Amino acid sequence: MAAVPDGAAAVTQSPEPVMDLLRFAAVGSVDDGKSTLIGRLLHDTKQLFDDQLEAVATASRRRGAVGVDLSFVTDGLRAEREQGITIDVAYRYAATPQRKFVIADCPGHVQYTRNMATGASTADLALVVVDASKGLREQTRRHVCIAALLGVRQLIVAANKMDRIAWDKDAYDQVVKDMIVLPARLGIESCTVVPVSALYGDNVADRSDAAPWYDGPTILQALEQAPAGAWAGVHGAHHGSAARLPVQWVLRQPGGGRSYAGMVNGGPIRPGDEVVVLPGGQRTRVTAVETLDGPLEEASVGLSVSVRLADDVDVSRGDILAAADDPPEVASEIEATVCWFDQRPLSAGDQYRMKHTTRITPARVLKVTGRLDVNDLELSPTESLNENDIGTVILTTASPLAADPYQRNRITGSFVLIDPTTNGTVAAGMVGPPDVTPSPD
Ligand SMILES: Nc1nc2c(ncn2[C@@H]2O[C@H](COP(=O)(O)OP(=O)(O)OP(=O)(O)O)[C@@H](O)[C@H]2O)c(=O)[nH]1
Ligand SMILES: [Mg+2]
Questions:
Q1: What's the pTM?
Q2: CB under 8 Å to 23, separation ≥6 — which residues?
């Protein structure tokens, strides 16, 4: 692990053992430099092959860029680059001697906020890119809110394009000031702000002497020091929920009997565990836990397994096997926080399909109760949500749901709403009210 220079903004140490894989998502407003920063990071840590570099250089020349435009590394040579913006999430893999990274380069444009939410939903950490010459914008705040609501607890902020403002310390200080208030009220545990130039590579992988007033970590150092594995950890026991296995498949065994396949979350599952089948409520016991490699003594969080049960209970795809002593609540009316992505506003009476773990059920909006202002984080009463609003709603579902509050379990506490006519995802939802601390004044 690289040493933290004196005076560096502290990165909170996780009580969990630090795993060597960090998943992070680059977020922030359109054109602030996310793709360029990721391209720079991959370039300067020697992750790019000669032919990739050659393709990026050719594309840059064709577009008339001065030098090599590293945003082409993740934006690729796709048509979207014709418009100069990222539309879809691009995933890249990188490895340094310290650790491995899965990187999601998210689009910044408001129109593609739903894609950003997809990229952030599996991230341990958000790398928030802010054009320091322009300051923090509403879309950046929206991204930070969405990432936090999706369970991201660590931020690294790149105060980017410092080269354009002659490395003005005041502009950097303003980004720090703006970023301190927002994350603290969103439950973000650590936030490091690094002054960088993604274009020229200052303070990305290599330390720059352009900002002698800054003695904190580079982007790479901050990424290497951040506690990893939080994504698995958020599903894990330390966030308070016990074992849950949403059933993906019911498998018929050759010798008779059935087993139930899915991914373990919340806590480990072992043979002998008492479980309850939800929403039905029948109790039984796990007799075996298996993977393709054979039987297990214990299946940990994140593992895809199949389990056998002691009794011939009725279990179908979409049911949840949960620890009998600490099951999720079963209800057909839920209070939830939603990020609304459809052009048509969301209001009472609207009907959608809700996908919750492996189950899809019709859902109706009983009431829209509030809208979150991403600037001051206040929740104000409203009757509808507009495109890209974050708000609170009460939903009723056709069949009962076994759901945990999102803060307890990132899997059984989340859902998406699907428009039944277009089949498009119109909302990302989290069970329970938003985890926002009210303003002190
Ligand atoms: N001067 C300067 N320009 C930069 C810097 N970083 C990025 N840019 C330029 O800013 C523009 C946008 O960069 P991108 O990396 O495509 O921005 P983005 O955040 O990925 O944009 P979207 O994905 O569309 O949201 C490009 O022209 C970059 O060359 C920087 O550090 N300094
Ligand atoms: Mg981009």
A1: 0.82
A2: 101, 102, 104, 122, 123, 124, 125, 228, 231
